[in-house]
Amino acid sequence: MQTSSDGAGLRAVFFDRDGTVVHDVPYNGDPAKVRLVDGAVEAFTRLRTAGLRTGIVTNQSGIGRGLITAAQADAVTAEVVRRLGGVDVVRTCPHAPDEGCACRKPAPGLVLSAAAALGLAPAEVAVVGDSSTDAGAADAAGARSVLVPGARTPGEGAVHEEAPDLAAALDLLLTATAAR
Ligand SMILES: [Mg+2]
Ligand SMILES: [Zn+2]
Q1: 3-state secondary structure of 179
Q2: Measured in angstroms, how far is the CA atom of residue 105 from the centroid of ligand 2?
Q3: Is 24 one of the annotated active-site residues of the chain?
Q4: Residues 6+ apart with CB under 8 A from 32
Q5: 149-158 burial: b if 16+ Cβ within 10 Å, else e
Q6: Residue 145 is inside which H or E element, if any?
Q7: Given 48, 115, 126, 129, which is the most exposed site by the fewest CB atoms within 10 A?
Q8: Catalytic residue status for 18
Q9: What is the pLDDT of residue 150?
Q10: pTM
Q11: Which stretches in the chain have pLDDT values below 50?
Q12: Is 39 buried (19+), middle (13-18) or exposed (0-12) by CB count in 10 A?
């Protein structure tokens, strides 16, 4: 029983890609290696049914490091989106960590850009991820966040909630929304 959720007003949920909706294959440039995590399709279906928008916000530093091309990264994301049955917005940071960009999570750029593309304020958005960088990006943008295991790095420093899997993350986010 959720009694303190502030999910009312939630309009969109953005997901990290690697380690959150797909099993992480470092610097993957091959769509054939895409394996969705259990519950990913169900999570996106549930959000659509609830009338919420969906998105993917993903750091792909393999591009900036010269390990994969932007086209390869985009092909992998396109395969993820296809298997999820479509998402409303995708934002990708192609930069290496030392480029000092405004979009590589935990910077807020991807979350802000994706929210703006849907005409939403960051406060109407939640981010689901598996890393402190996801929580940091959401926190910096003014969005809510839920971290799901196997979090490689728990959410140090940034305001966030935690759930054992994607279904539980949506339980947390949708409780108050569904009651409206
Ligand atoms: Mg991740
Ligand atoms: Zn960037």
Answers
A1: coil
A2: 8
A3: no
A4: none
A5: eebeeebeeb
A6: strand 144-147
A7: 48
A8: yes
A9: 65
A10: 0.92
A11: 1-6, 178-180
A12: middle
Residue 154 is predicted with a pLDDT of 57
Catalytic residue among 6, 16, 98, 130: 16
User: How many Å apart are CA 35 and CA 38, to the nearest integer?
Assistant: 9
The sign of the CA dihedral 161, 167, 168, 171 is: positive
**CA 103 to centroid of ligand 2, rounded, Å:** 4
Q: What is the pLDDT of residue 7?
A: 55
Tens digit of pLDDT for each residue in 113-156? 999 999 999 999 999 999 999 999 999 999 999 999 765 565 56
* DSSP string for 64-88: HTTSS-HHHHHHHHHHHHHHHT--S
Q: What is the pLDDT of residue 4?
A: 37
pLDDT in the model for residue 149: 77
The number of the ligand nearest the C-alpha atom of 18 reads 1
Ligand with the closest atom to the CA of 151: 1
**Which contacts qualify for 151-154: CB closer than 8 Å, 24 or more apart?**
152/19
